[in-house]
Amino acid sequence: MPLTREGSGADLAWRLAPRWIPNAALLTLPQLDALRRLLRRTPPCPARSALVAALDADPAHAAIEPHAVPESELRFLEALEDAALTRRPVRVQYHSVGHDELATRELSVARICLGHPARFLAVCHASDRLEWFRVFGVLDAQLLETVAYRPADPAHLAVLTGAPPSVSDERAGAELHVLRVPLPHAPTVLRALPFDAEVLVHEDSAELRTRVADRRPVLRFVLAWGGLVEPVSPALRTALHEAASQLLVSAASPASSPPRPTVIAKEISR
Fold it and tell me: Coil, strand, or helix at residue 190?
């Protein structure tokens, strides 16, 4: 127990430290917020998980998923965290790697997924659409006090949190393929996605956009899900039609029928 001696003789007194609490530590609210941020950015382990669970009892902090974050992505991460926790829009200068363009966007941050790379889901005010963004693409960030926050649709949020952000494929010969999935089935389909795809959520469906040089994995994926996954791009529809035609021809061909057993008769002489 930390005690401070005061006076002497008959006036001797012992005083407790002003910020001492038995079996506890006293933190100010700013210190508590700083501790939360540091814990979310450290490598995963059971002790950290227990501390994060104890400190993040407030439901608002569920908007930030903890994970280790590289030093190079910490510059504007605090502003994005504040935007998510306080439900305030943020104006960012964002560099899109896939399109190699720099643009100013006003965003309402809905979810932050820390890790490598750190990324976040936000409603873009220009398109009024929920989209994935990467933290390293943010070159400037400023919280907005006079612009209304736009909450994400819970159904759209559930769809996109089940699918990772797309990875741009710039290889020679890469072809864009577009698929459509009914919104109620989208979370299940996206969890089984075997390739990277950009996900756009519409009123009643999720649109998947992938750019690959070899279309065979996409064809197999569409055929495996039957009518739940609809090809939109003409090239993919044509390829699926050809594949279906070949299957029908093979099924109707006599050569494809199972062979009949051969009976060998042996004459027995008496």
Answer: helix
The candidate with the shortest Cα–Cα distance to 68, out of 82, 87, 80, 52, is: 52
DSSP 8-class letter at 160 = H
Parallel, antiparallel, or unpaired: how do β-strands 230-231 and 64-65 relate?
unpaired
Q: Where are the chain's structural domains?
A: 31-152, 153-253
What digits encode the pLDDT tens for the residues 15-60? Answer: 666 666 666 667 777 777 777 777 776 666 677 677 777 776 555 5
Which residue type occupies 200?
Answer: L
What is the spatial distance between Cα 122 and Cα 130, in angstroms, rounded to a whole number?
Answer: 5
136-191 pLDDT tens trace: 889 999 999 999 999 988 878 777 776 555 544 444 457 788 888 888 888 888 87
- Beta strand spans in 35-75 (E): 64-65
End-to-end CA, the chain: 114
Nearest alpha-carbon partner for 162 in 136, 133, 191, 189: 191
Residue 52's nearest CA partner among 73, 30, 28, 68 is: 68
| Residue 39 CA from chain centroid, whole number | 20
Max Cα–Cα distance, the chain, nearest Å: 136
Total count of residues recorded for the chain? 270
